[in-house]
Amino acid sequence: MFSNLFQSTTVPILQEVVAFSQARQTVLAGNIANIDTPGYMAKDLSVEDFQSRLKRAIETRDQPQVRSPGEVDLPAKPMMADVAKSSQSILRHDLGNVDMESQATEMVKNQMQHNLALTLLTDQFHQLQMAISGRV
């Protein structure tokens, strides 16, 4: 019952954004940690790949589906697992050179995306709490 309630909101989408930005922050931090490692190639998770998968998941979710009475929706597989396992989602660039400025810039952008998703998620739960308590 509650899973269907949440699946029709932006909560699952925001959860995926938070999970992706957390995983990406770890990868970017690893790049900075290895900045002085000879021959180290910077890695990154593909933001474009994640965004396209997220868009497809939203479109699939929003399509009307005909179901038999009593048919239950199975929980969707988390998209972050697909992005992390995809070999195309790891980008190798700079041929062994990790640029501190670009890595720091990407980390700041990623942190802003993470904070925005958390703020929106917090607002969603706050609105739900207000609706449940009757203080609309």
What would your notes on this structure say?
With 136 residues, this protein is mainly alpha-helical. The protein has one domain. Helices cover 63% and strands 6% of the residues. The chain is built from five helices and two strands, in the order H-H-E-H-H-E-H. Strands 1-2 form a two-stranded antiparallel sheet. Helix 2 (11-33) runs parallel beside helix 4 (79-85). The longest helix is centred in the last third of the chain and has 34 residues, at 100-133. Mean pLDDT is 78; it is low at 85-94.
Name its key features:
elongated, two-stranded antiparallel ribbon, mainly alpha, 5 helices, 136 residues
Task: Summarize the entry for a quick read.
The chain is mainly alpha-helical and about 140 residues long. Helices cover about 65% and strands about 5% of the residues. It has helices at about 1-5, 10-35, 45-60, 80-85, 100-135; strands spanning about 40-45, 90-95.
Layout of helices and strands:
Blueprint: H1 2-7, H2 11-33, E1 42-45, H3 47-62, H4 79-85, E2 90-93, H5 100-133
Antiparallel strand pairs: 1-2
Secondary-structure element series: HHEHHEH
Q: What is the mean predicted local confidence, pLDDT?
A: 78
**Beta-strand percent range:** 5-15%
Radius of gyration: 19 Å
- Main β-sheet, spatial strand arrangement: 1-2
Number of E strands: 2
What structural class do the secondary elements suggest? mainly alpha
Number of domains: 1
Tertiary shape: elongated
Report the end-to-end length measured between terminal Cα atoms. Answer: 22 Å
The helix content, as a percent range, equals: 55-70%
For the biggest sheet, the summary is:
2 strands, antiparallel
Instruction: Note the total helix count.
Output: 5
Q: Low-confidence spans: pLDDT under 50, at least 5 residues?
A: 85-94
